[in-house]
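User: tokens in, sequence out, please.
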């Protein structure tokens, strides 16, 4: 996670929260990471259309 998204400390924080059964922190981390993945996928899709106009739908 840390190498892919360049979010230092997120992996350690996740493991510590799991070990301490801090479910609020685990839930929040999952939501934030899911939002980051969704945002990155959206940006990539938009860039594909901008780079290759053949992908545009009428």
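Assistant: Sequence out:
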């Amino acid at each position: 996670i840390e190498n892919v998204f360049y979010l230092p400390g997120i992996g350690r924080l996740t493991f510590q929260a799991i070990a301490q059964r801090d479910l609020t922190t685990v839930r929040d981390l999952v939501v934030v990471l899911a939002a980051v993945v969704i945002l990155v996928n959206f940006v990539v899709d938009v860039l594909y259309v901008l780079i290759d106009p053949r992908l545009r739908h009428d």
